[in-house]
Amino acid sequence: MTARYTVALIGAGGYAGQVLHALLVHHPCISPRIVHAREPDDEALTVCAACDVVALATPSEAARGWTDALLRRGHRVLDLSDAHRLDPRAHYGLPELQGPPTPNTPLVANPGCYPTATLLVLRPLLDARLIEPEGIAVLGASGASGAGKGLRDDLHFCELHDNSFPYKVGEHRHTPEIEHVLGASVSFVTQLLPVVRGMLVTAFVRPRREPAQLLDGLRAAYEAHPWVTVLAEPGPGLGLRHVVGTHQALLAVGPRERSGLVPVFSTIDNLMRGAASQALHNLNLWLGLPPELGLPPPLLEPPTGLPGMSRMLP
Ligand SMILES: NC(=O)c1ccc[n+]([C@@H]2O[C@H](COP(=O)([O-])OP(=O)(O)OC[C@H]3O[C@@H](n4cnc5c(N)ncnc54)[C@H](OP(=O)(O)O)[C@@H]3O)[C@@H](O)[C@H]2O)c1
């Protein structure tokens, strides 16, 4: 592999930025270049101009300022924040559902962790008309690193250790993103888990077909996509520890409940598939590189019991 690319990384000291930096350091064709500036001053823009893509792993307000300045100068921007996920200029980078960004795309918006987990399990079911678009209810449970490294009262060790509780009920900022890409409205509730990494989304859907057909629909949708594994049934195989440190998404379909609803499930690592490894997947596709370069290898078998420590990557 001879082609070499350089990616400027802004926000490399944050949780998502640290993981993306670690992945880029080990990439065979891409080298990271950390930009320390807090605003797009001349020095920072000169560094960015020498790079093939600028990746932003900053809060969304900061990402807006950086993106405007960079796009004005003709640079390509990959934004991990939610600043541009509804922006018509941006390619929404969920590779299995949206395909690769075209080489002349100026801006790739990397989906968030909750939207990624939710869309991966719900979009194929809606696209294949296997579920009703109305009355979808989603519960997302996340490890505390999803909130970033900033200090917050409810993330204090004494609040979260040995504990779990809902947060931002009725006002979660990622609901519009999920609804926009899904093309359906959702009731969306989030919950903090006393773990550092990992996210489990459970959605209750009204089926148009039997659960076995929903399962077949998901399997067909992801047949050619090795980083999405559809399990035969929900259970310990969906455990967070199977995905932490990986790019894998694990999906499952439950039996029909007496209410008539069917639960469907999705597990990812919020910092990898929900942020950094998805950003790298998008970079590979955008730069015309093989998609697997620098990413943890896909799971070969659906997980069941305790995972091996060898899967614990950045
Ligand atoms: N954490 C996740 O699981 C996750 C998942 C999906 C998407 N995201 C998104 O990814 C972005 C980063 O998240 P995070 O969890 O890594 O946050 P974080 O831990 O709070 O890190 C944010 C980083 O941005 C830097 N920063 C802040 N303002 C800046 C500015 N004006 N210019 C340059 N850098 C600036 C910070 O610098 P200092 O180090 O100097 O404070 C820090 O390094 C957010 O938009 C978040 O919504 C995060």
Question: What is this entry, summarized?
Answer:
This protein is of the alpha/beta class and 314 residues long. The protein contains 9 helices and 13 strands. 28% of the residues lie in helices and 20% in strands.
What do these coordinates show?
There is one protein chain. This protein is α/β, with parallel strands linked by helices. About 30% of the residues lie in helices and about 20% in strands. The protein contains 9 helices and 13 strands. The protein has helices at about 15-25, 40-50, 60-70, 95-100, 115-125, 155-160, 175-180, 210-220, 270-285; strands spanning about 5-10, 30-35, 55, 75-80, 90, 105-110, 135-140, 165, 185-190, 200-205, 230, 250-255, 260-270. It has a 7-stranded mixed sheet. Strand 3 (about 55), helix 3 and strand 4 (about 75-80) form a beta-alpha-beta unit. It is globular, with a radius of gyration of 19 Å. The chain binds NADP nicotinamide-adenine-dinucleotide phosphate. NADP nicotinamide-adenine-dinucleotide phosphate binds next to helix 1, helix 3 and helix 9.
